[in-house]
Write a structure and sequence with these properties.
The protein is an alpha/beta fold and about 220 residues long. About 25% of the residues lie in helices and about 25% in strands. The relative contact order is 0.17. The chain is built from six helices and eleven strands. The chain has a single domain, classed as Spore Coat Polysaccharide Biosynthesis Protein SpsA, Chain A (Alpha-Beta Complex). It has a seven-stranded mixed β-sheet with strand order 5-4-1-6-10-9-11, with helices on both faces. Bound molecules: guanosine-5'-triphosphate. The site of guanosine-5'-triphosphate (GTP) has 23 residues, from β4 and α2. It comes from Paenibacillus graminis. Keywords: Cytoplasm, GTP-binding, Magnesium, Metal-binding, Molybdenum cofactor biosynthesis, Nucleotide-binding, Transferase.
């Protein structure tokens, strides 16, 4: 299994939430602290990818902060800056709007790049291609690139997109060899909220609070 750098994506404006999503509390911890804990279970080291303006607010985590090289350009810029600095070839990224992203789910994705030979997947011609990224797909069929694994070789595509002011992560995926990992195949974690639960609005936060306070599903009762 290759080593991974953990990237905690936590810049941006949280416009829809109206306040910093990363600092919202869920189950007695801030979202960013929850995710830092999960990443620490699977990554060789974790960095916070944020803008200059978030530096102070996240200092309490005592993690290295990687500041966007393209400020104000969204998640793609955070991913780009952190991959650029990452000491490992592969990184695992989790965004602060996915508060239930779990180490178990990250391990499940990592299984797909466990052995170097498995980095090669046959395409429709039967040729073997080298995987550049592994991204998750929710049960509703939504691709979620901000819980995924990225190899440093994607930097060229990311850099070109940022230079060309094309800021959509999904658009970059089109230029990469991507392995899509369905949430549906994930059976490894404790029952609970979906690791791909997406939290962007106050309503999403209210629903997330209910999810953490819901009693654990115990089928033995
Ligand atoms: N490093 C970095 N991370 C970002 C940036 N913009 C967004 N993110 C992170 O990427 C994830 C997805 O962000 P979005 O929901 O698309 O954007 P947002 O700015 O957080 O929220 P909205 O303003 O409501 O769109 C979140 O975890 C953000 O913390 C950015 O410019 N730099």
């Amino acid at each position: 299994m290759p080593q991974f750098t953990g990237i905690l994506l936590s810049g941006g404006y949280s416009r829809r939430m109206g306040r910093d999503k990363a600092l919202l509390e869920l189950g007695g911890r801030t979202v960013i602290a929850r995710l830092a804990d999960e990443l620490s279970k699977v990554a060789a080291g974790t960095v916070i990818a944020c803008g200059e303006q978030e530096r102070e607010a996240y200092r309490f985590l005592q993690l290295p902060q990687i500041i966007d090289r393209y400020p104000g350009c969204g998640p793609l810029a955070g991913l780009h800056a952190a991959l650029y600095q990452a000491p490992t070839e592969w990184s695992v990224v989790a965004a602060c709007d996915l508060p239930f992203a779990s180490a178990e789910f990250m391990r499940y994705m990592m299984g797909s790049v466990e052995e170097p030979s498995r980095e090669l997947v046959p395409n429709y011609n039967g040729d073997c291609l080298q995987v550049d990224a592994v991204v998750s797909v929710s049960n509703s069929g939504r691709v979620q690139p901000l819980l995924g694994l990225f190899h440093k070789r994607v930097l060229r595509v990311l850099e070109e997109a940022l230079q060309g002011r094309r800021f959509r992560v999904m658009e970059c995926l089109d230029a990469l060899e991507v392995l899509y990992i369905p949430e549906a195949g994930f059976t490894g974690g404790p029952s609970g909220p979906s690791p791909l639960y997406n939290m962007n609005t106050p309503e999403d936060y209210a629903a997330a609070l209910k999810l953490v306070s819901a009693p654990a599903d115990d089928s033995s009762v």
